[in-house]
C-alpha cells in the first residue's frame, strides 16, 4: 500500500465515539496479520484498538500486511517505523495467519525469535482467538500472550509496561507474568497451565467496529458481536468447547449502539449509518434475536446475521433479513446423512433442513449456499454420497418454493471443506485424510454435483492449517520455512515432521497434546468422553 493509498483510505474512514492515535508516553503498534480489508472487518481487532485509544494513556496505530510497498514496515496512521514501537501487539484469529505474523516481524526489522531480541526491540504481544486454543506453535516467537478475552487484559498489561519502562526487558516480562491470562514463554513452561481470561462486561459493552470503511470485507457496515461462545457442543467446533460460556448482549444495548452512531452521523452532517452485521456463532440461541432484528429493521437499518441454523429459522427473521436487502442465505448442514449429523452432534433431519430451505425461498431469498465437511471421523462412502443426494433435494425444494412473480433462478452453491481436527474439541484425536485421498474424494463429489456451483478451499491452506492447529513449538523450523515462501509439504519434510504418524493418523485419547495443562484438564476430560461417544457410531 503506497503512502497515497494509505492517505486515501484514511480519508474514506468514518470513526465513531473513538479517538485517533494521539500522543502518549507509550507507543503501541497494533497489527492485524492480513490485508487492511480483512483487518477492518475484525470485531476483535477493532475492539482492542478502541480500548487502547480511549484510555488516553497510549498512542496506538494500526499495522497491516504490506501490499506491495518496500522498506521497513510503517504504521497505517502516521507512517512511523513499526520497529520503534514500545509494544508490537498482534490480534490473531486463524492459524494460517501465523505465517503473515512472521513476515510482519521481518518487515518491521524485529528478530523472529524472542531470545534474539534486544532492549531496543518492541515487546511482541499476541492475543486473539488463537490464544483460546493452542498458542504453542508461536511460543518461540512471542514475548507475551494474553490468553482469552483481551478487553481488560490489554489495558492491564500496557499499564504494567508503562510502569516498567526503565526496567530491563527480562525483568519486565517476569513481572508481567503475574497478570491474569498472561502467558510468558520465558517464565511459564506451557500455556495449558494458564487460565484463559473472561471479560464479563461484554454484555453491556459489546465488541464492535467503531471505524467503518468502504474498503472492508463488509463495506461501511457496523459489526456488533451480539453473543460470545455457543451453547451447542458440535464435536468438531471450538466455539462450544474452548470458549467461555454463552453470553448474549441484550437487544436494548445493540439497538442503542446503532441509534447512537446514527445520531453522531446527524450531528456531523454525514450520511446516516444503514448497514448492521450481527456477529455471533449462534444467532437463534440469542433469546432476543427475532425481536432485535425486527426492531433494527423497523428503524431503517439493513441487517445481516453471520450464522443461522437451518433448523431454527423463523419466518419473521427471514422476512426482516430479506427486507434489509439480503438475497443469499448461508446454511451449514455439515454432513450429508442424518447418521453423520448425529455423530458430529449437529442434529437436524433432512426434512427439517428442507423445510428451512423452503421457508427461506418463500421469504424471498434468491440464492442459497450450503456448507459441507468432507473427511469427518468415521465417515463412510454412503455419507459422502449423502452430500450429493441432500444437495439435489435442497436445490429442488428451494427452486420449487421460490417460483412466482419476481422469483429468481434459485442458484445453489455447494461449499466442500476438508475436515481439520481442532484443539480442545472431541475430534482433536482424529486424523485428516491425506492429500491424495482428499483430492480423489473432492473430484468425485464435483463430478456428481453437476449443475451446482461447487467451491472448495486451496488444499495447501487446509493442510497448513491442520499442522499448525495441532502442533507445538517443534513447528518453529516449519513456520520459518513457510515464511520464506516454501510449499507446505516441502517445508514439513525439511523440518522433519512425521505427518503420517501425527496429522494423518488417529491418535490415542491419552496422548499428551501440546496445549495440555491443569487449566484445561476439565475440558479435556469432557472431550475424551465425547470422543468415545462419537466412536460408538463406527
Strand element count: 17
The CATH topology annotation of the largest domain reads as Transcription Regulator spoIIAA
Strand order of the largest sheet: 3-2-4-5-6-7
Helicity level? 25-40%
Shape: globular
CATH architecture of the largest domain: 2-Layer Sandwich
What is the straight-line distance between the termini? 52 Å
Overall average pLDDT: 93
Largest sheet: 6 strands, mixed
The radius of gyration is 24 Å
How many structural domains?
Answer: 3
* Number of continuous helical runs: 18
Relative strand content: 5-15%
What class do helices, strands and sheet pairing give? alpha/beta
Q: CATH top level of the largest domain?
A: Alpha Beta
Low-confidence stretches: none
Task: Tell me which oligomeric state these chains represent.
Answer: single chain
Which structural traits does this protein have?
538 residues, alpha/beta, Rossmann fold, Transcription Regulator spoIIAA, 3 domains, six-stranded mixed β-sheet, four-stranded parallel β-sheet
Could you explain the architecture of this structure?
- There is one protein chain.
- This protein has helices spanning 3-12, 36-39, 43-54, 97-107, 130-133, 151-163, 169-176, 251-268, 289-298, 315-323, 338-343, 350-363, 381-402, 435-448, 459-470, 476-483, 488-494, 521-535, and strands at residues 14-15, 26-32, 58-64, 87-91, 123-127, 144-146, 182-183, 211-212, 221-225, 227-228, 247-248, 275-279, 302-305, 328-334, 367-374, 411-418, 453-455.
- By secondary structure, the protein is α/β, with parallel strands linked by helices.
- It folds into three domains: 3-193, Cobalamin-binding domain (Rossmann fold, 3-Layer(aba) Sandwich); 220-325, Transcription Regulator spoIIAA, CATH 3.30.750.210; 327-538, Transcription Regulator spoIIAA (2-Layer Sandwich), CATH 3.30.750.
- A six-stranded mixed beta sheet has the order 3-2-4-5-6-7.
- It is built from 18 helices and 17 strands.
